[in-house]
Every structure is written in structure tokens, then in C-alpha cells.
């Protein structure tokens, strides 16, 4: 009976709040630790990087641990690097494509290659199933210039 009431309450809340707050994303169900913060340690915002040549991207994380995909351990997750895209929906699995790179083995850095021009980079932590935590843990979006 409790589950039915909880589902009914969730549906009612969605029906009431949905039209009032369009575009509000609900986060996943895996909790993140208080104060957890992801950041890009390198390159820096506004930095020029080599075009069409590999360069290193270093992932930073505070107050949270890194664990590979499929490993469910409290206060851990793994990195996803978002390139030239906005944050995905927070209640769904993070896409895996050329704009959403998964580091499910627990990597904390990578080498990427970008064509000439301005590009954005952002980190988003995912849980054991690639779903953002609640609240989501992500870095600020930085811009790099590939020349």
C-alpha cells in the first residue's frame, strides 16, 4: 500500500509542478556526498591547446572517490567528459558518443584531440550505472582554443 501511495504522490506532484516548473531536471537516485565537487585541473579556462594533436585533460574531484562502472560503493562514481555540449538530463543514463566520453574504468585523465576552433569541456560524475548523482556533481564548463 505504501508504494502505491508514494507513486500516486509522485504523479500528483509531477502533474502539479510540471507545468509550473518546465525544464526542471530530476537527479538520479544515488546520493553524492556533501560538498562533492568536480573540476578540470588541466587545461585551464581560455587556454590554447594544439589543434589536431593529442593533449592531456586532467580530472579533479574533491570529497568523493572514483570507482569503475558497475561498482556500487558509497560516495563514489566515475568521470564523464562533455565536449562541446550542455549537461544531459540528470535523471537518465549519460549518453556515450563523441560529445560524452565515458571513463568507466576509473580514469582520472585522458588525451583528446580537437579540430581548430573554440571548444567547451565539462566533467560530470556518474554512478555505477552512468546516471548522475543526487545532487549532481559536475565541473564548471571551460573553453579551450585549439590552434
UniProtKB/TrEMBL annotation:
Record protein name field: DUF4399 domain-containing protein
DUF4399 domain location: 57-144
Pfam family, one: DUF4399
Residues spanning the signal sequence: 1-27
Assigned keywords, A-Z: Signal
Matches recorded under InterPro entries: DUF4399 (IPR025512)
Amino acid at each position: 500500500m505504501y508504494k502505491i501511495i508514494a507513486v500516486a504522490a509522485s504523479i500528483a506532484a509531477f502533474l502539479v509542478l510540471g507545468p509550473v516548473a518546465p525544464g526542471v531536471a530530476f537527479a538520479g537516485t544515488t546520493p553524492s556526498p556533501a560538498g562533492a565537487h568536480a573540476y578540470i585541473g588541466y587545461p585551464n579556462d581560455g587556454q590554447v591547446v594544439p589543434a589536431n594533436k593529442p593533449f592531456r585533460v586532467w580530472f579533479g574531484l574533491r570529497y568523493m572517490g572514483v570507482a569503475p562502472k558497475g561498482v556500487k560503493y558509497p560516495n563514489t562514481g566515475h568521470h564523464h567528459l562533455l565536449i562541446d555540449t550542455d549537461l544531459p538530463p540528470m535523471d537518465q543514463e549519460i549518453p556515450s558518443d563523441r560529445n560524452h566520453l565515458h571513463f568507466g574504468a576509473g580514469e582520472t585523465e585522458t588525451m583528446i584531440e580537437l579540430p581548430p576552433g573554440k571548444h567547451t569541456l565539462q566533467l560530470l560524475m556518474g554512478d555505477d550505472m552512468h546516471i548522475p548523482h543526487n545532487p549532481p556533481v559536475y565541473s564548471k564548463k571551460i573553453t579551450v582554443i585549439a590552434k
